[in-house]
UniProtKB/TrEMBL annotation:
InterPro entries: ARM-like, ARM-type_fold. Pfam families: HEAT_2, HEAT_EZ. This is ARM/HEAT repeat protein. It comes from the Archaea. PANTHER family: DEOXYHYPUSINE HYDROXYLASE (PTHR12697:SF5), PBS LYASE HEAT-LIKE PROTEIN (PTHR12697). Gene3D superfamilies: Leucine-rich Repeat Variant. One of its GO terms (molecular function) is oxidoreductase activity. It comes from Halobacterium hubeiense.
């Protein structure tokens, strides 16, 4: 290869991006498209780490990163998708402008399932904060139908993306609420939490959409995870606002949950009981329960709490919980295990 066309060192490439040297960054990324596989892997790992700390620096060069989503190397595709997740969380409008390649990765049944999971996560962040950028029936169908057929690791990200869709535009999930509720018995507590939270978001805007979800929500009041129990109580409280809630409601169980620890469950049970007797709970007065604002403010910390792992079974490089039968690389950082 001609030295003039050699890719820059990884340190120089990251410096170009971090400093906003746009022309040099674009040229460097294009040069890396034809670099050796090990250099592409190392470069994308460095860029992904930079994106975790400085996601805004990548908004001018996202189009140049798109080719790496279809790289021949699976590890490169995965690390690139992870980079898009970091940027989408902080700069959703920028990722929304290049959302189509991510949607294609999600829809590709032959793609490595961790890549599909990360694509779903990135698209979810866009749907949460820039919903018009990904407002397509195809994406919603991909997220919903995938709950039935995908690998467990993908289903977790699909559920998270559906929660994000509901937080961005609750009405989009209104007609799909019963299908979402049918997965509230998933083996993964994280999936159950995300989907129950999505239904709460729908209920904040359209309580009647939860009518056919009543039985599944009532069952979730017995869930082993307190956050799922709390969200179920919150959703039932919202369902009360519908003219026809779809059947009798578990008044006695909700009353009992008012005294449960932690307070996350008790506050939401109090909210539901107050709705049943047409009163206003203290939590509702503070806009903490039964509102999109409250859900958005809490859910990130809740997910972190649910996923906080014991040291055993985690990535030695980033601390991510590793799936029991996963590939020999971390789905979060792409590092070898």
């Amino acid at each position: 290869m001609d030295e003039a066309n050699d890719p820059p060192t990884i340190a120089r490439l990251t410096d170009h991006i971090e400093s906003g040297a746009h022309e040099a960054a674009v040229g460097g990324l294009k040069a890396y498209e034809s670099a050796a596989a090990d250099r592409r892997r190392e470069a994308l790992q460095a860029l992904s780490s930079l994106a975790d700390d400085h996601p805004a620096a990548f908004t001018p060069v996202l189009a140049e990163l798109v080719p790496f989503l279809t790289d021949d190397e699976r590890a490169v595709r995965l690390t690139t998708a992870k980079l898009f997740v970091a940027v989408a969380d902080a700069e959703p409008a920028a990722v929304g402008a290049v959302a189509e390649p991510l949607a294609e990765r999600l829809a590709d049944d032959e793609e490595f399932y961790y890549v599909r999971a990360r694509a779903a996560e990135a698209l979810g962040y866009v749907a949460r904060d820039e919903p018009d950028a990904v407002d397509t029936p195809e994406l919603l169908a991909e997220l919903r139908v995938g709950l039935d057929f995908d690998e467990p690791e993908v289903v977790e990200k699909l559920a998270k993306a559906l929660e994000c869709v509901a937080l961005g535009q609750p009405h989009r999930l209104g007609h799909h609420a019963p299908a979402v509720a049918s997965h509230l018995d998933d083996d993964s507590e994280l999936v159950r939490y995300h989907l129950c939270t999505a239904l709460v978001a729908v209920g904040c805007e359209r309580p009647a959409a939860l009518q056919d979800c009543r039985d599944a929500l009532v069952e979730c009041l017995e869930d082993e995870n307190s956050y799922v129990r709390g969200r179920a109580a919150e959703a039932i409280g919202l369902l009360v606002r519908a003219d026809k809630p779809g059947g009798s409601l578990p008044n006695e169980r909700l009353v009992a949950l008012q005294d449960e620890e932690p307070s996350f469950v008790a506050d939401r049970a109090q909210f539901a009981v107050a709705e049943l007797v047409d009163e206003t709970s203290d939590a509702r007065k503070c806009n903490e329960v039964g509102s999109l604002e409250g859900v958005r403010a809490e859910t990130e910390a809740i997910v972190e709490d649910i996923t906080t792992p014991d040291e055993e079974g985690t990535c030695s490089q980033c601390g991510h919980v590793l799936p029991e039968h996963g590939p020999p690389l971390c789905p979060r950082c792409g590092g070898p295990q």
